[in-house]
Please model this.
Amino acid sequence: MSGNQAFETDTIAAPATGAGESAVAIVKLSGPRALDIFGAMFVPSGGRPARLLPDRRLTLGQILDASGCAIDDGLGVVMRAPHSFTGEDTAECHCHGGRAVVLSVLDSCFTLGARPARPGEFTRRAFLNNRIDLSQAEAIADLVAARTSLSRKLALRQLRGGLSERIAALRGRLLDAAAQIEAQLDFPDEELPPLARQHIITHFHETETEIARMLAGFERGRHARDGARVVIAGPPNAGKSSLFNALVGRERAIVTPHPGTTRDTIESTIEAGGIPVTLVDTAGIRSASDNIEHIGIERAKEEIGQADIVLLVLDASDPSAPAPALTEADSHVIVLLNKSDLISSTAPSVQLTPEHAIRVSAVTRAGLEEVERRLAESLVGCAGEDELMVANARHAQCLRGALQSLACARSAFERDMPEELVMVDVRGAIHRLGDIIGIGLEDDILDRIFNTFCIGK
Model:
């Protein structure tokens, strides 16, 4: 039996709520025997058989084990196919959230014929039953994992079909072009209109442009979805650790007036403009005075090389302090002039300071809001409420593959190469776009995607 056949014939059960004690827990069933199993373990208070309950209406009743003994008083609800999340017959028991209660309800489901759901299996059934496409299924996992309001909005936009519609439109455009080319290949003796080659080339070019535009926003989308790594770096005694503590809002790093206090990296997570940001405090960059400090400086350099953004902290109160040379990744460096509370607005500052440096104070917290605003702007830009950002690495990989195939197809067409060769790349682009929404995707790839989901979703 194939994996998909098992999804069609088994009835599954799992808790839909998180582990641990809570006021209420939900155990749900889905599959061909869901209503039978639910009917054997739930007795409505009004005496009406559970199988006859109206759809999507919570009913008070008693939840029983497989032998007919009471487990709990709770609520039950049924959702008959195809009008359910999975597209199958579905039922839920809403019980008290104690561990013993939930385990007893699950045991009753399993004894009566259900099996434990695999990770993401409810969502996978919704996908297989054409309730949602694959990108929408992945958006559900993103909603569950969303850590900020921005990542939640992006996931909800994708769940509502924003990405699906865009991909379907691009794919449809390529299918239309492919149909015209295939007609010339399949019916060479028919009196068909001449192939509109320039029109098709224009079609290809427009599609390439739109795909490239979607890919251009991937880094911003990735930051919004997965967060960013921001490294605080600079010379010793510039106040890096004090600034780290001020941004985090608590004393995480040891602060002393002695150079070389920070010997290792320290991390903490904050939210900046709706983006989860991992802040990394590093050792001051200088010639090391001992082996341990040397190791800390080397780690600092490694972190700088891996950072999405570097906050370069300089001492604004010391005009003679050298400003370290910025790297080739200058666009990813934000310069902060710390200790600005120690100087007047007209006093000279450190030399070689970039024009857009931010004056801050770890003591008075001056400028910290501007730092967070600049971080958000650098990481995701000024994203509009309705802007669609590609945030999933798998989607970006598929788009890159489609763009490459399409560029090859257009180039071959422009060089008057045989249409058979052009179609190889056109089909490749269509296939890669289809992968995003799950058209023709193989079971092993689906397994890898849905295995990242939590059980019960």
